[in-house]
Amino acid sequence: MQTYIGGVSCPFICSKHLDHGVLLVGYGSAGYSPIHLKDKPYWIIKNSWGENCGENGYYKICRGSNVCGVDSLVSTVVALNTKSQ
């Protein structure tokens, strides 16, 4: 996503080799995709590079087509109470 400049990103080529973490924070039903020249549904991603990258630290990526592994290369955290009882 280093080349992201705005709108909804729908790259044709994207590495599936993860090298940083991001956080999926929301979605939208129609945002303009410059590469497709039309509105596309999208995920809103908070990037890990700070507010100077993307749109104030966020970017939009096409939803529903597993672009860049966003639908399949997912991890999660489960917090457990480790306090002794």
UniProtKB/TrEMBL annotation:
Q: Which UniProt keywords apply?
A: Hydrolase, Protease, Thiol protease
Q: Mind listing the GO molecular function terms for this protein? A: cysteine-type peptidase activity
Keyword Protease belongs to the record: yes
Give the GO terms filed under biological process for this record. proteolysis
Q: Where is the Peptidase C1A papain C-terminal domain?
A: 2-76
Which residues are in coiled coils?
A: none
Entry's family note: Belongs to the peptidase C1 family.
- PANTHER family, per the entry: CYSTEINE PROTEASE FAMILY C1-RELATED (PTHR12411)
Stated name of the protein: Peptidase C1A papain C-terminal domain-containing protein
Q: Source organism lineage?
A: Eukaryota, Viridiplantae, Streptophyta, Embryophyta, Tracheophyta
